[in-house]
Amino acid sequence: MEQGVGNTIIAECKRKKNDKAPAVFYADHMEYNGESYKYGEMDTVSLYASAMRYGILMENFSGFIKMTFRDGRKLKWKIGGNAFLGFGKNKLKREYYANMYEACMLTFFKARAAEYLQTIRSGGDVTIANVNVSATEISGKSGLKKASTPISQLGGAEIGSGFVRILQADQTHTAVNPIASKFDNAVVLIPIVNALISGQ
User: Fold this and answer.
1) CATH annotation of 123-198
2) What is the pTM of this model?
């Protein structure tokens, strides 16, 4: 997704093929359901996506992204679909959710991460979903014990199956327990950790 200028549309996220009210992303804000949401005004985000298969007959996909804003507004973007014997909108709904997730990651979540990173780079630390992050290390629970890992020994952060995972450098072990993406701002750990690793 490219950065936009002024009123240039940088992404348009639909929930159905002929969606007449998609979420439209501009350079500094998103418009949805007749309201305008600035990226830098998001306070918290929680999200989840689930795909289930019932034998060979049926598949189901459902997902949501919920955000709260500093002016008290709340936004919930929800999507879902089924497929029976391979026929249905299940696959298309997954694509729509993935598009919305990517657009939010590069706008809302990136802006929120930048605020956290400013605190971290100023010598402070932040706690998100029971994970503490400083410029030098992350700490949290690993199993039942408290654990900390230097930033230099991390291998990145990713999301999958409803959990955010912060990986050690070997890419096979997690530095802390996987964090449910439903927890407030858990997903924002991904751009934070990846920025710290890359030195950005």
Assistant:
1) 2.30.29
2) 0.90
Ranges of residues in the chain whose predicted pLDDT is under 50 = 1-5
Using CA atoms, how far apart are residues 163 and 98, in angstroms rounded to an integer?
Answer: 15
Q: Which 3 state secondary structure label does DSSP give 57? A: coil
Q: Which residues sit opposite 79 in a β-bridge?
A: 63
Amino acid 54: pLDDT? 66
> Architecture of 11-104 per CATH?
Roll (2.30)
Angle at the Cα of 49 (from 8 to 162), degrees rounded to 5? Answer: 115
What are the structural domain ranges in the chain? 11-104, 123-198
The two tokens of residue 157 are 């952060």
Is the fold of 11-104 the same as that of 123-198? yes
Cβ atoms of residues 24 and 36 within 8 Å? no
pLDDT (tens digit per residue) in 13-44: 999 989 999 999 999 999 999 999 999 999 99
